[in-house]
Amino acid sequence: MKKYLHLLLVPVIIVLSSQIIFQTNFWQFLEKKTQDTLFHLRGEKTISEEIVIVAIDDETFTCLDIWPFPRSLYARLIKNLQKAEARQIVFDIQFTERSPDEDEDLALASAAANFGNVIFAGELQKGIQDRYTQARLISPISFLRQKTLNWGIVNISPDHDGYIRRYTLFEIFAENEPYFSIGIVALANLKQFDTEWNWQDKIRLHRKYLQVIGKEIPIIDRNRTIINFYGEPGTFPRYSFFDVIDDETFSELGIGNPIFQVNAFESLLEAEVFKDKIVLIGATAPVLQDLHHTPLTETDLMPGVEIHANFMEMVLQEDYLTIFSPLLYLLLLFLVSFIVYYIYMHLKPLWSLLLMTFLIGIYVYVVYYLFTERNLLVSAIQIPASLIIIYIVGLIHQYWKASKEKRQIKHAFMHYMAPDLVTELLKNPHKLKYGGSLQEITVLFSDIRSFTSYSEKHSPGETVTILHEYLTEMVDIIVANKGILDKFVGDEVMALYGTPIKLENAALSACKTAIEMRIKLKELQKKWKQEGKDIFEIGIGINTGQAVVGNLGSQQIFDYTAIGDTINLGARLEAINKEYATQNKIIISEYTLEKVTDLVDVKYLDEVKVVGKENPVKIYELINIKV
Asked: Distance between CA 210 and CA 223 in Å, rounded?
C-alpha cells in the first residue's frame, strides 16, 4: 500500500497546487489569451443582417467640419431613418447635457417621440471617494425623458488587460433598482404593444440568467455575459452618418462643405438598407476615443457601438457562450491527473513525452470543438499545464527512483563484483528486476576441507582472522575475473559467472578463477607456515548450465542468487573432491568443458550419478589454462 501511496498523493498535490497558481493574474491573463485564440481560429460567423450601424466616422467629420453636431442633425437622422422604415433606432451617443439652444433639444426629442422606438444612452459612473465606492447615474436630458423615451446605460467594462470580452447587462443603483444596458432595453422594446405596456415588466432577472423577449441570456460575474463576437470590426454593415442626413434638403441648412453634398440618402433609401432593421448609431472615428480591444481585433479596434451590435446579434440568434462547470472540470482534472501519472510511472521518458504531446493535441481539439460546435468555453491551459507538470514530476520521480536503484545496486555489488560489471549494471538496472529468469551461467563452489576440525583446534579470534584473510583474497580473484560473489556459507564460497552481465566465456572465467585461487592459496599457506600457523586445503567445483537467476529475496532483503540442478551439481562437484586424488583439487563438469575445450588442460576422472538426471555426468580435473 505504501508503495502506491505516491500514485494518489502526487496528483492530488499537483492539482491543488496548480489551482492556486491558476488564480494568479498571469495565468488568468494567459487563459484569456488562449480563449481569444479560439475566436481567431474559428473566424467570422454569419450574421442575421437585422442590425446595421450608422457611424460617426472620419467621412462625417470631413464633410461637416463641426463638433459637436447640432442636435437638429440627429433629429434629421431620425426622420430619414423613419422614412427608410427602420424598425428601431439605438443611440450609443449620450445626450446628457442640454444644448445652448433649447430648440435643438426640442427638435431631437420631438423627432424621437414621433418615431416612437428610439433608445437613448445614459451611464452609471463609479469612483472611489474616501475609500468608498461612489456611484452617479447620468441620464439623458429632461426633454427626452419627458417624452417617455426609453434609455439604457452604455457601461462597458474591460478585463484587466484592457480587452472587452463581456457585456454588462445591468447595474444596480439606488435601492437595488437595476438599470439595464441599451442592448437589453433595445431588445425589450423590439416588440410593440399597446401604450399601457411597460417593457421593464417583460424582463425577468434570475440568478443564472436574464430573460428578455423570451430569450434567456446566461449571467456571468453577477451582471455580465460573455460576448460571442461575430467577426472583426466592420462585420456589421456600416453607413456614414453624413450620408444618412445628406438628403435633398440638406443643402438648405448651410452646414458643411457643399462639395460633399450629393443627396447620398436617396440611394440608401432606394436600396432599402434600413428597412425593418435595428439601427445602432455610434462613433467610429478614432478622435472620439470609443475604440476597444476585443478577441477579434488585430490592427483595427472595435467601436463601442459594434460591441453593442455583437451582443444584440448574439441574443437574437440565441447564440450564447457558456462556461464549462468549474466543479465538473476540477473532477475531470483530478481523474486525468491520476490516470496520466500512473501511466507516466510505467513508461520511459520518451514514450511519456509522446503520450503527453498526443493528449495535449487531443485536448486542444476537444476544446476547439466544444467552442465552435457547442458554444462552450473550457479552460484551454489548465489540463495541458497539469499534464506538463505531471510529466516533469514523473521525470524527477523516475530519475530519483533510478538513482536510488543505482545506489542500491552499487551498494549491493560493489564489494563482490568487478567495477566494470557494476558500471554496466548501473546502465541496465532492469537486469536486476525482482523475480528470476532462466539463464545459462557458470557456478563455482569453493570450500575449506575439514574446517570444523580446524576451528575446534583454534580460538575463535584466530579462526576469524585467518578466514578473513583467506576470503578477502578469494573474493578479489572472483571480482578480478568478472564473477559475482553470490554468498558465503560459513567457509564456503559460491560465485556466479555470466550474470547479471553476460560474459564472452563465463566458463573460462570460472576456470581462471579456480586456478588463481589455488595459486593464491599456496602463497597463503607458505606465509602461514612462516608465521607458525596451521594451514588448510580447499576443494573447488565448477558447473555450467541453465539456472533460475534473479532477485529471489524479498522487497526488504535483496538476494541476487541462482537456483536449480546446475547449482546443485556444482556444489556436489566441490564436495566430491575428497573422493579423488587430484592435483589442484578442482573438478569441472562435462558441460563446463564443452565451453572451454582447447582452452584448458583437463584429466578425465569419472562419471557420477546426479539426482534428477537419468544419465551420469562426466567429470574432469582442471589442471591448467592454456591461454
From this structure: 9
**What is the length of the chain?**
627
- Residue 249 within a domain: yes
One domain, residues 448 and 337: no
Q: At what angle do helices 349-374 and 326-344 cross, to 10 degrees?
A: 160
Within-domain flag for 463: yes
What's the CATH number where 423 sits? 3.30.70.1230
Question: What's CA 368's distance to the chain center, in Å?
Answer: 16
Write down which residue in 342, 376, 404 finishes a domain. Answer: 404
Model confidence at 436: pLDDT above 70: no
Mean pLDDT of the chain: 86
CA–CA separation, 457 and 293 (whole Å): 100
Is pLDDT above 70 for 192?
A: no
Q: 229-243, 251-265, 386-400: which has the highest mean pLDDT? A: 229-243
Alpha carbon 344 to chain centroid distance?
13
Instruction: Note whether 344 and 241 are same-domain residues.
Output: no
Whether residues 130 and 251 share a domain: the answer is yes
Q: Which residues contact 318 (CB under 8 A, 6 or more apart)?
A: 215
With a cut of 70, say whether residue 255 has pLDDT above it: yes
Instruction: Tell me the C-alpha distance between 400 and 394, whole Å.
Output: 10
Question: What is the Cα–Cα distance from 290 to 303, expressed in whole angstroms?
Answer: 6
Which three cell numbers, joined as nine digits, stand for 454?
Answer: 580446524
Tally of domains within the chain? 3
Whole-angstrom CA distances from 503 to 7, 101, 214, 440, 510 are: 39, 108, 84, 11, 11
Cα distance between residue 529 and residue 525, in whole Å: 6
Domain residues for the domain of 231 are: 46-318
pTM of the full structure: 0.68
Residue 245 covered by a domain? yes
SS (H, E, C) 34-71: HHHHHHHHHCCCCCCCCEEEEEECHHHHHHHCCCCCCH
Do 103 and 150 form a contact (C-beta atoms < 8 A)?
Answer: no
Written as nine digits, the cell of 100 is: 445652448
Is 409 inside any structural domain? no
**CA torsion sign, 512 to 476 to 534 to 458?**
negative
Which of 318, 335, 366 delimits the end of a domain?
318
C-alpha cell read off for 96: 446628457
